[in-house]
C-alpha cells in the first residue's frame, strides 16, 4: 500500500551535501540555515479530504476523511475502514447521524495515551443528532485486530454548528468548526473549536465554539481550568476565531495554537489558562456599525481584496483595544491570512537545527490580493521559548497542497495530509 | 489524447452553442440573427490559467479539495455555463466571491479552453 517516490530535484547538490553530512554528522541532515534535504513518500493517495492522523508507536495510523469516515493504516500497509460518515459504504459500522457539509464533517482524531490498556480512541465529527446540529467529540473502543470500533460515547455533544448560509465569503453552512483533537503532556484531552460565523460565540461564556477545551476522557472539565467566572468550566481559552492547529512545546509543555485569520493575520498564540484570544466580530462595537448577518468578521470590505493592515485596524484578529489583557500572538504570518491550519513540533536529531521547532501547515488559495500560500513554515522559538525567533519556509520535495494536517510519526518523519487527497511523509536526509 | 481533445472540443463547442442558442432565444431578433462564433480551444493557454487561478482551490488535478468541487468529472458544457454565469456576476453558492473575481477576467475563448482542459488533462 505504501508507495515510494524518490525526488532528485537537487540530486547533484544533495548528493554532495549528503556525502559531507555522512562524514561530519550522519544524524544531521540539515545542510544550511534555510534549507533542508527531505525524502518524500506517498503513504496514501486518492483519499477524500484527509483531515487528521494519529499514531501508535509501531506506526499504526488512524486517519479521517471528512465526508467518508475513520480508517486505520496498519504497519503492513493494510487499510481497515472503521466507522463511516452517514451512509457511506464500505465501513463495518456507521454513524447515521454523522454528515459533512462545507467545512464540516469528520475532523480530528487521537489515540488515548493509555491505548494499550483501554483501546480507546477519540474522533470529532459533525452530527445531526441534535437540532440545531452540533459537532461532537466521540470516544470509541477499537477492537483487538483493528477492524472495528464499538462503545461510541459522545463525551462532548454541544459544540455549535452553522446551520444555514450567511452573507459572507465562504458563507455556506458548516463553516468554522475548529476540529483538532490532541492529548497534552499533562494527559488531558484538548479540543479546538470555531466561531460558526456567529458573532455571539467567541466571547460567550457558555457557547462552546471559539474555545480551546481541556477535559478528561469522559468530557469533564479539567480541574485546573481557570476561565472567567460564569464560563463553562471546560474552557481553557476563549475568544478564538477558528482554531485548527494545536501543539505542545516540547520543553515548556505550553499549549500553542495556530489559527486562521479573517482575510488577514493568521496567528500562533501561546495559550494562557483562562485567556482571551480577543476575537470579537460583533456589530456596533469597537467602532463598527451594522454588519451583514450580524457578523463583522470580514469587514470593512467583504466583496474584494484590500490592504490587510487596514482590515486589521477595522476588525482585529486580537482586539487589544477592547480586551487589553488578550493573549498576544507571537506570529501573524506577516499580516496575511493564508489558512494556517495545523501545527506540530519536529522531534529527533535527524531534523538538525529544526529539532524541537514548530511546523505549521498552510493552505492559502491566493484570494483577493493575498499570495497563494500552500506550504509548511518552520517556526523556531527563542531561548526563553516565549517568542518566535525565526521563520523558514520548508523546501518541499513534492508539489505543494492545502496542508490540513501535520503530525509527527513515531519513526521521526513528519506526516502531512493535504485536502487534495494525499497523506505523505517527509523524512530528513537525502 | 489528441482525439480526446478534439472530441471534447466538439462537445464544448456544441454545448456552448446550445447554451448560446438558449440564451438568445429570449433576446431581440437582432441578436438572434447574429452569427454564433465558435471559440477556438487553446489548451496551452488554459493550462496557464488553471495553474494561476484554479489549481490552488480545485487541486493540481482538478480533483477538488475541501469545499471546492471536483472539476475533472464534469461536462465541459456545464463548466462553460457556470463560468459564464459567474462572469456575469451571478452568485451561486458560498464561494461566489472567489469565482466571480476569477471569471470576470475570462474571454469566451478562455472559458471554452478551460472547460476542455480541466475535463481532459488529468485522465
From TrEMBL, chain A:
Q: Fetch the InterPro entries from UniProt.
A: 6-blade_b-propeller_TolB-like, Glc/Sorbosone_DH, Quinoprot_gluc/sorb_DH_b-prop
Record flagged with keyword Metal-binding: no
**Keyword terms of this UniProt record:** Signal
The answer to whether keyword Nucleotide-binding applies is no
Indicate the secretion signal residues: 1-29
Where the record annotates domain Glucose/Sorbosone dehydrogenase, the positions are 47-420
Name recorded for this polypeptide? Glucose/Sorbosone dehydrogenase domain-containing protein
Say which species the protein is native to.
Litoreibacter arenae DSM 19593
UniProtKB/TrEMBL annotation, chain B:
Q: Which GO terms describe its molecular function?
A: electron transfer activity; heme binding; metal ion binding
Q: Could you name the domain of life of the organism this protein comes from?
A: Bacteria
Which residues, if any, are the signal sequence? 1-20
Which UniProt key words apply to this protein?
Electron transport, Heme, Iron, Metal-binding, Signal, Transport
Which InterPro entries does the UniProt entry name for this protein? Cyt_c-like_dom (IPR009056), Cyt_c-like_dom_sf (IPR036909), Cytochrome_c_Oxidase_Subunit (IPR050597)
Q: Tell me, what's a Pfam family for it?
A: Cytochrome_CBB3
> What is this protein's record name?
Cytochrome c, class I
Q: Which residues form the Cytochrome c domain?
A: 41-122
Q: What is the lineage of its organism?
A: Bacteria, Pseudomonadati, Pseudomonadota, Alphaproteobacteria, Rhodobacterales
The keyword Lipid metabolism is annotated on this UniProt entry: no
Protein's organism: Litoreibacter arenae DSM 19593
